[in-house]
DNA sequence: AGGATGATTGCCT
DNA sequence: GGCAATCATCCTC
C-alpha cells in the first residue's frame, strides 16, 4: 500500500482521486472512509486553478499533500487535497463512522446519510473551515488511514459545474448510501 | 468601481 | 423539480 504522505499526492490527480476512495479521513478524530471525490487540474476549465494562481487558490499551487479550503455560494466550505501544482481532489462524501454524535450535533437533525453527503455538508460535519486551509494532511488535526480493501469504483461526470461537464472525473463507491448523488 | 458568478444546500410547491 | 440564500472573488469596464 502506498503511504499517504507527500509522495501519495505527488502524482497525477486522477490517479490520486481513484486511490482515495476507501481511505479514511479524520479531522480531530471525526470522519470515515471516503466514498466520493472529484479531480480538478490546471488544464481544466472547471478548476479554480485554470486561470492561474490567485490569493484564494494559492494552496493549489503549494506543496502536494496539503488542504485547500474555499468558501462557496457565500455560505458553505469545500475541502480539497492538493496534488501536483494546480491540481486537487474535491472531497465530496464519506461514510460517517467516527465521531458521529459530534457530526450530528454540528449538522442538526438529519438522517445518517445526510451527515456527510456533499462537500458542504461534509465540511460542516467535520468542522472544516478556512482555519485548515494550507495545512498538511499528515499532521493534526488531519489523519488519513489507508483503505482496507479496494472495492469497486465507479466514474462519471462531475457535479455542479458549468465548464468541463463531460470530463468523467467523479469517482465513487458504487451503490453507497452515503453519496451526494447516486452513481453506478 | 461595478457586476456576474459560483466544485451547494435546503425549503417550497 | 424549482429557486432563494448569501458574499468573497474575479473579470470587465
Mean pLDDT: 96
What is the straight-line distance between the termini?
26 Å
How many β-strand runs?
8
Profile the largest sheet: 8 strands, antiparallel
CATH topology: 3-methyladenine DNA Glycosylase, Chain A
CATH classification class: Alpha Beta
Structural class by SSE content: alpha+beta
This entry's quaternary arrangement is single chain
* Count of structural domains: 1
CATH superfamily: Methylpurine-DNA glycosylase (MPG)
From the coordinates shown, what is the CATH architecture?
Answer: Roll
Shape, per Cα inertia axes: globular
User: What fraction strand?
Assistant: 15-25%
Helix content: 10-25%
> Number of helical runs?
4
* Uncertain parts: none
Radius of gyration over C-alpha positions, nearest whole angstrom? 15 Å
Protein model, in words:
Strands 1, 2, 3, 4, 5, 6, 7 and 8 form an eight-stranded antiparallel beta sheet that branches. This protein has 184 residues and is an alpha+beta fold. Strand 4 (76-82) and strand 5 form a beta hairpin. It is built from four helices and eight strands. The chain has helices spanning 6-9, 13-20, 100-107, 119-126, and strands at residues 24-27, 30-40, 67-72, 76-82, 88-94, 142-145, 154-156, 170-172. The protein starts with 5 loop residues before the first helix and ends in a 12-residue tail after the last strand. It has one domain: Methylpurine-DNA glycosylase (MPG) (3-methyladenine DNA Glycosylase, Chain A, Roll). It binds a DNA duplex (13 and 13 nucleotides) through strand 3, strand 4 and helix 4.
Amino acid at each position: 500500500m502506498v503511504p499517504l504522505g507527500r509522495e501519495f499526492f505527488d502524482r497525477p490527480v486522477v490517479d490520486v482521486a481513484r486511490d482515495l476512495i476507501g481511505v479514511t479521513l479524520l479531522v480531530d478524530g471525526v470522519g470515515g472512509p471516503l466514498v466520493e471525490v472529484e479531480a480538478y487540474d490546471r488544464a481544466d476549465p472547471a478548476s479554480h486553478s485554470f486561470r492561474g494562481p490567485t490569493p484564494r487558490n494559492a494552496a493549489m499551487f503549494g506543496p502536494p499533500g496539503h488542504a485547500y479550503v474555499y468558501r462557496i455560494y457565500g455560505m458553505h466550505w469545500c475541502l480539497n487535497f492538493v496534488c501536483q501544482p494546480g491540481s486537487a481532489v474535491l472531497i465530496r462524501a464519506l461514510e460517517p463512522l467516527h465521531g458521529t454524535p459530534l457530526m450530528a450535533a454540528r449538522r442538526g437533525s438529519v438522517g445518517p446519510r445526510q451527515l456527510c453527503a456533499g462537500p458542504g455538508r461534509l465540511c460542516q460535519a467535520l468542522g472544516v473551515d478556512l482555519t485548515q486551509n494550507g495545512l498538511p494532511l499528515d499532521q493534526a488535526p488531519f489523519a488519513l488511514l489507508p483503505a482496507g480493501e479496494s472495492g469497486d469504483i465507479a466514474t462519471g461526470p462531475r457535479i455542479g459545474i458549468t465548464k468541463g461537464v463531460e470530463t468523467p472525473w467523479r469517482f465513487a463507491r458504487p451503490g453507497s448510501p452515503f453519496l451526494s448523488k447516486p452513481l453506478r
